[in-house]
Amino acid sequence: PNYLTPVFFRPEVLRKYYDDPGKYSVEDGYLRCGCLWGLRMDNDHTDYVVVWLGDLGGDLVESERTYWRSFNIPPEGKGISPTNFKRAFAAQFADPVRSDLAFKQKLRSFNKDFLKSNGWDFYLSLHKDDRHFLIGLRILATDNQAEFDSQLLALTKVLIDSLNEKAIAKSLTNLNPNDKGITKLEKYLDAHGIVGYAEHIKFLRVLQDLRSKSAAHRKGTSYDELIHELGIPDEGQKMVFTGLLGRAEQWIDFLVTCLNTEEQNRP
Q1: Where is 37: in which H helix or E strand?
Q2: Do the Cβ atoms of 224 and 234 come closer than 8 Å?
Q3: Residue 61: left if φ>0, alpha if ψ -120 to 50, beta else—which one?
Q4: Selection from 105, 94, 259, 112 nearest residue 190 by Cα
Q5: pLDDT tens column, 217-229
Q6: pTM of this prediction?
Q7: Nearest-angstrom CA–CA distance, 248 and 180
Q8: What is the pLDDT of residue 158?
Q9: CA–CA distances in Å: residue 67 to residues 16, 70, 71, 141, 188
Q10: Contact present, 106 and 33 (Cβ < 8 Å)
Q11: Whole-angstrom distance between the N-terminal and C-terminal Cα of the chain?
């Protein structure tokens, strides 16, 4: 077999690395173990991971190759992603399509551009003890309630708890003493003449409620109602969280379109 023979693995192969962010980093198209080793991979799929045979043999130590081998699956009906094809064979820049990778890329880009344009952070950087929430944020490999709960906590930490409430509220004159983060955000968007934010604010509120009703307490009919309210089919934890990541990506797209443009064009 030649170097560029694609080898396929179950997505659970990456769980070990996601769960130890102090040692490993799972990135868009790359797996890194500090400065010890790195592995190119095609992780822009939801159902499997692809690695070139030559990279498996040349970049992984024997113990890691043995670990990866235990997740190997047949290649029938599978292929590399369009993203990987553009990067590897067409020498083109290509953004990831997979929701978790695309969301994290867009979030980083928005934060950087907003700070440059406005002089303050819309989303605060996570504390060093909380950075694993963003690093480990991912589509679930399988339907797993414990993983769903942990990822729901991570997404809420990144999207809601990290809002720069102090800076968002600074220019507002209509705040009430009990107004919290999402309410401050809603009033900020309204004060700046932004339209079309209602569905996104609804998503953030439902996400916050889901954290309370799913990850923090026993589940019940209210949990099912919240999932239904977002219009996400309840087809297992993996599909539900994939839908939540898709809505999170849409929220960042909305911020990029409305806030960055609005602030840059302000006299």
Answers
A1: strand 37-40
A2: yes
A3: beta
A4: 259
A5: 445 566 777 777 8
A6: 0.87
A7: 20
A8: 96
A9: 10, 6, 7, 17, 50
A10: no
A11: 62
Alpha-carbon distance 25 to 22, whole Å? 8
**Residue 38, helix vs strand vs coil:** strand
Closest CA to 114 of 163, 42, 183: 163
| Residue for token pair 């344009």 | 117
128 exposure class (CB count in 10 Å sphere: 0-12, 13-18, 19+): exposed
Q: What is the DSSP letter of 215?
A: I
- Predicted confidence band of residue 214 (pLDDT cuts 50, 70, 90): low
- State the virtual CA torsion across 135, 11, 95, 79 in degrees, nearest 10: 170
The 10s digit of each residue's pLDDT in 123-136 is 999 998 999 999 99
Q: Rounded to the nearest 5°, which phi and psi values hold at 176?
A: -100, 155
